[in-house]
Amino acid sequence: MPIFVWKGRTLAGEAQSGEIEVGRQDEAIDLLRKKKILVTSMRPKAGSFKLPKFGGGSGVTTKDLAIFTRQFATMISAGLPLVQCLDILSKQASKPSFGRVIGEVTHEVEAGATLADALGKHKNVFDDLFRNMVAAGEAGGVLDEILMRLATYIEKADALKRKVQGAMVYPAVVLSVCVGAAAFMLIFIIPTFAKMFTDFGGELPLPTKIVLMLSTGLQRFWWVIVLGVIGASIAFKRYRATEAGHKNIDAAMLRMPVLGDVLLKGAVARFTRTLGTLIASGVPILAGLEITARTSGNKIISEAIMTARASISEGETVSAPLKASGVFPPMVVQMISVGEQTGALDEMLTKIAVFYEAEVDTAVDSMTSIIEPLMIVMMGGMVGGMVVAMYLPMFKLISVVAGGAN
Q: H-helix or E-strand containing 41?
């Protein structure tokens, strides 16, 4: 089983740290919470044994979960009994694995468990946010409203995630095509020219020599490059698994030109949408901030949120530590401050989320418009440069032949 290294504080504020061996990270957090320890950071221990996962875990996608939640909300609001709703949903689930999970939840509810507790036995499908919102809906007698709000949240969160991922994937794909085209020319096209130049003899231009050297090096030492890429990937993953590494990489991502702006706006939109949905659903703000920190997707953002949580537990505001972190834009901090003062924090957070989700769209479009010409210039420069380098000796040969003829 994997080993997790954790740091936290007791209710008295005393710093604690240690290692815990459990199946999943959320189980480790639950166990420590039962011991009255507030976890501030947790990471897999480097080199710890971890069983490989096959079949992609539960196999339940965000789309599956959103459809289930919206259908569930519709049935509950129509007045159908809870167990009957779950039974119907288990039979019409799009995936057999998801149907089995819903069936097990149905049996738990029939046996007298609350819906939130029954969902809690399937943490790989229903996360903390989902379970806490359901628990709040059950306690307040507004389960249908909470489920509808949850379905909307899941759909918007998934759409935002896809936009941010698309923004990161696009330049990587274009760059891969550039590198692939250059490698193809160096391995298969350039060697033909190399033989021709050898037969001609004479001194070759410097650009031609450089291209021929790259071609020879790639053909002879391709395995060194492959091993280097694999080694760099492993080293990067190991470094990111460390506390300092994770933090430094996430900070560097936010500082990147163009892409960093997209990632920051996406993180702000995710934070405000998640926290606003939780607070509006009746989840206590301390629990909401803890859940939001774990789902932020960025270590820097997560630490800022946990600092805000500590601030609230000491009777202070949310906005002050967010401002002190220097991560969140001034407009976000000001709007959260106004929301706290007016008692409408959930509404203000939702407005911020709507604004920044639109900002992500604009930022992605802007990034695409910037990257496209840059990639075209880069690809044209790489391929065109090699073509020119190969034709320079021919121009020289033609001039020599023409001079001899005269």
A: strand 37-44
- pLDDT for 22 equals 67
List CB contacts of 291: < 8 A, sequence separation 6 or more: 128, 129, 132, 274, 278, 283
Query: What value does the mean pLDDT of the chain take?
Result: 81
Give the three-state DSSP class for 38.
strand
Among left, alpha and beta (phi > 0; psi -120 to 50; other), residue 280 is: alpha
The order of strands in the sheet holding 15-21 is 15-21, 3-10, 37-44
Kindly state the tokens that stand for 6: 């954790």
* Structure-token pair, residue 374: 């840059």
Return d(Cα 178, Cα 173) in angstroms, integer.
Answer: 9
Q: pLDDT, tens digit, for every residue of 148-187?
A: 888 888 888 888 888 877 777 777 787 788 788 888 888 8
Angle, CA of 263, 268 and 274, to the nearest 5°:
120
Spatial separation of the C-alpha atoms in residues 332 and 356, rounded to whole Å: 10
pLDDT in tens, 324-359: 878 888 898 899 889 888 888 888 998 998 898 888
Helix (H, G, I), strand (E, B) or coil at 257: coil
Which amino acid, one-letter code, is at 53?
K
Q: 370: how many CB neighbours lie within 10 A of its CB?
A: 13
Distances (CA, A) of 331 to 142, 240, 254, 334, 391: 33, 31, 18, 5, 57
State the Cα–Cα distance between residues 100 and 85, nearest whole angstrom. 15
> What ranges in 78-189 are assigned the alpha helix state H?
82-91, 96-110, 115-119, 128-140, 143-184
Mean pLDDT of the region 379-384 = 81
Distance between CA atoms of residues 123 and 227, nearest Å: 38
Q: What DSSP character marks residue 54?
A: -
Q: Is the dihedral of CA 73, 346, 132, 302 positive or negative?
A: positive
* Claim: this prediction has a pTM higher than 0.70: no
The pLDDT of residue 46 is above 70: no
Taking the alpha carbons at both ends of the chain, their separation in whole angstroms is: 82
Burial class (CB in 10 A: 0-12, 13-18, 19+), 61: middle
- Helix 96-110 × helix 82-91 angle, to 10°: 160
Q: Residue 388 has which token pair?
A: 């020119």
Q: Tens digit of pLDDT for each residue in 189-239?
A: 888 777 777 666 667 778 888 888 888 888 888 888 889 989 999 999 888
Whole-number Å distance between alpha carbons of 401 and 156: 69
HSE-CB at 14 with a 13 A cutoff on CA atoms is 4
